[in-house]
């Protein structure tokens, strides 16, 4: 495929993903307005977020495999179409049942499109340097999109109404789908005759959906309740059954050989830890700004904008060059080290924090996520063969969603527990909330330190052919030290 066509394809893939990523955060800012307009209970309100997350996280792996079988371009375009139509129906919803149902459909469409996106980048950009730049741009969309969504959600909700946080998807989705038909390279897929492993699909989709549901509901039931432990046990049974099925199926949905690659397995584990800390950071710092410092929705989004800008500059301007010069592993370790410093600073966040002194340094150091996510994505996808690129892409996106849900649930639960304990001992609300955030940020820092150790011990720079190694200025046979 000529370079201009590859560039157009990358723009389309990034535009589609930006729309999907934005939707994950743009809704959270509008929740109070939705609650007032539709007269929702707190439990119903949480399901506007959770129904999307459960569908998205639960269907990614299945969607990735179907993309390999039916064609990734076909799956991507279909996903954009489903997401766009569901956005329209979300926007015109007049009651909670319709809105929650359409949010679930949105999550399904988002899973269909995002599950194959990385696989398409791998096939469209076979050269290492070009692929590194493409993954850097794609990673920027994922890393910065959530912060941009917070800003945009606040502006649209205050200036027009919450309905427009969904309507804004219509022109973006329609344009991206039409352009995708024209610019993305066609692929036929392996065909359903290879086998879709229906039983495996039921087991893993049910297990992932139930697992994500169990995680997000811990904020309501707690980690040690009969509800949580019972559903966790069923989740383990379903996922164990899936693993057994993959070991014996003629055409498994997720061949266990995929995990023989230390980079695929290690990168997914590192990403779960890293995303857990960063998603938790994003939610908790927004709560701190609003509940402790008294910021409004739009102000909160603007306060977090420097992090999005820094991540964008690092992802687009430096990550590919640094990966080409030093290798994915070293860049990943440097990025995680910056994140450890960023979240570690928040463990000393005062109640009456000054933005420039106490928060801006963290927002700037968060740019390390632009390095880390680009490098870990490149390492994770390096173990994917042409036939399994969609599957590994779905797996990688699945670990990201599970990591995000786990991080928000774990950090929020511990923050709330510490806050309750401080309130019980006579602390005022602001200091009790801040104390809870300190504990959560300490746990986030610990997760990042574990990710650093795991990355250093397990991950290695992919070996490349000698001809390409010369281009990269790195010896082909020697993994990064």
Task: Summarize the topology.
Blueprint: H1 3-38, H2 42-70, H3 72-91, H4 96-115, H5 117-124, H6 128-159, H7 164-167, H8 169-183, H9 198-216, H10 218-221, H11 226-248, H12 262-291, H13 297-326, H14 328-345, H15 355-365, H16 368-381, H17 389-424, H18 429-458, H19 466-472
Helix pairs in contact: 1-2, 1-4, 1-5, 1-6, 1-8, 2-3, 2-4, 2-9, 2-17, 3-4, 3-8, 5-6, 5-17, 6-13, 6-16, 9-11, 9-17, 12-13, 12-16, 12-17, 12-18, 13-14, 13-15, 13-16, 14-15, 14-16, 14-18, 17-18
InterPro entries: EmrB-like (IPR004638), MFS (IPR011701), MFS_dom (IPR020846), MFS_trans_sf (IPR036259)
Subcellular location: Cell membrane
Main location: membrane
